[in-house]
Amino acid sequence: MKQRWKVGELAELAGLTIRTLRYYDQIGLFSPSGYSDSGHRLYTESDITRLQQILSLKELGLSLEEIKSVLAGDHISLFDIVSLQIARIKKNLFAQQKLLQELEHVSSLMVRKQPLTVEDFTKLLGTMRMSHEKFFAEKRENWNVHLDRLGAILDKHPEP
After folding, report:
1. In what order do the strands lie in the sheet with 34-35?
2. pLDDT tens for each residue of 70-93
3. How many Å separate Cα 76 from the centre of its chain?
4. What does the alpha-carbon distance between residue 7 and residue 60 come to, in Å, rounded to a whole number?
5. Which of 33, 45, 74, 117 could hold 69 in an S-S bridge, CB 3.0 to 4.6 Å?
6. Residue 110, H or E segment
7. Is residue 91 helix, strand or coil?
8. Model confidence at 155, in pLDDT bands (50, 70, 90)?
9. Helices and strands, counts by H and E, the chain
């Protein structure tokens, strides 16, 4: 008999949250093979294999949409995936190196007890802002997804 796992068991096994697995199901990325008589999601070994592929691609830096596309068979080669990750890492490294240079410049001025100019501060702050914009854009996108889902739920179940 084939082993089946409920969503909570799979979440614990994979180190994910139940919410994450439900979200993957909602967006059509990772759905269970079946449901119990009481409506619980049930996952099989082949589902676990697919989840491992998803987590591996996510670890390489692919977005959920890119992962969905790869798993749907949209001929993205392993080389393309690796190239995409290399480009992302280079971009992040460049931004971090630029921030490091600005911080070292300000630090050296401070060590030499030289005054910091408005230009020094604005250049540093601009570099810091660019470094953090990506982080906050990703967080904002995640919140928008969650708010959209909440809105859809509330639309389906209006208050009496």
Report:
1. 5-6, 41-43, 34-35
2. 888 866 777 877 787 788 788 888
3. 19
4. 25
5. 74
6. helix 78-111
7. helix
8. low
9. 6, 3
Residue 142 has pLDDT above 90, yes or no: no
Q: How confident is the model at residue 135 (pLDDT cuts 50, 70, 90)?
A: low
Tell me, what's the pLDDT at 123? 85
Indicate the pLDDT class of residue 157, thresholds 50, 70 and 90.
low
Q: Is the pTM of this model over 0.70?
A: no
Chain Cα centroid distance, residue 38: 32
Which residues touch 33 (CB under 8 Å, ≥6 apart)? Answer: 4, 42, 43, 44, 46, 47
pLDDT at 140: 60
End-to-end CA distance of the chain: 46
**CB atoms inside a 10 Å sphere around CB 4:** 18
Which residues, 6 or more positions from 29, have their beta carbon under 8 angstroms from its beta carbon? 54, 64, 67, 68, 71
Instruction: Give 40's contacts (C-beta < 8 A, 6+ positions apart).
Output: 6, 7
Residue type, 140: R
